[in-house]
Protein: Fur family transcriptional regulator
Organism: Paradesertivirga mongoliensis
Amino acid sequence: MKSIRNTVAKNEIHKLIAGSTVALSQAELQAATKGLCDRVTIYRILDRLTQEGLIHKVLNVDGVMKYAGCADTCKAQHKHDHIHFSCQKCKSLTCLAGVEASYRLPAAYTVMEANFTLSGICPNCT
Amino acid sequence: MKSIRNTVAKNEIHKLIAGSTVALSQAELQAATKGLCDRVTIYRILDRLTQEGLIHKVLNVDGVMKYAGCADTCKAQHKHDHIHFSCQKCKSLTCLAGVEASYRLPAAYTVMEANFTLSGICPNCT
DNA sequence: CAAATAAACGCAACTAAGTTGCACTTACAA
DNA sequence: TTGTAAGTGCAACTTAGTTGCGTTTATTTG
Ligand SMILES: [Mn+2]
Ligand SMILES: [Mn+2]
Ligand SMILES: [Zn+2]
Ligand SMILES: [Zn+2]
């Protein structure tokens, strides 16, 4: 059984993501931590936190991966079907925690994951 | 007024996209055309076709851009709010032309574009 | 507390997608 | 037919993400 260890870098990065209202990219985390650890280490920490179910990935509209903290309600059962919003002005990517999309697609499709992202102007930039 | 010219490469690539049931990436188009033109040229052709409103972009779940033909109904007014399906087995990305998602998000958000992609198993792979 | 060990890390090298600059070629309008 | 701006090829570059490997360190166990 491969155990997962706690390290300073991991805790710091988890705290940053959990305390952020917007999803963060590896580059943003690296800038925010300024030499705390190597960039490769950040990628590996993000993988671990994702595996542990503490954060979830969101692909931004520019193709760059961002990471957001899992909500409290997520602890019971992970479900990340909420819509995300990508602001074209401030470039922020936000989890719209409560907002889910409904759709009806032809059967024969088996859905395993949903990736819904709207882009436009966020409230802060209006 | 900058005009847009027709070239062999452009026509060939447009035909490939228009005749495909799935969205295609630059790499896939390059493989399908085998030395028709440089890879940079493919990127530039894709940009032009997009600008002309003949194709539209779809970001795949792996962060790679794919391109799909615009539907006939699209000629009246472009609107690409339909859902896309990304198959985890055959890696295909399909426009679900008729299928749109409905959602209700907090006002104060101004939506300009929608990017809805479901992933799972497509009918061909079931 | 000390030693063992597997997880975590740093660094260098690599891949893959996409972009840019510039000289050369070609579609097409005049 | 010819001038010219649009299109192309090639080399170089950027940025995100991955991999291999030798070294460090958190945690377990005696
Ligand atoms: Mn979660
Ligand atoms: Mn269209
Ligand atoms: Zn989210
Ligand atoms: Zn589409």
Summary: Residues 3, 5-7, 25-27, 39-40, 43, 63-65 of chain A lie near DNA strand D (CB under 10 Å from a C1'). The mean pLDDT of chain A is 95. The radius of gyration of chain A is 16 Å. Residues A 56, 58, 68, 80, 82, 84, 95 surround zinc ion (ligand 3) (CB under 6 Å).
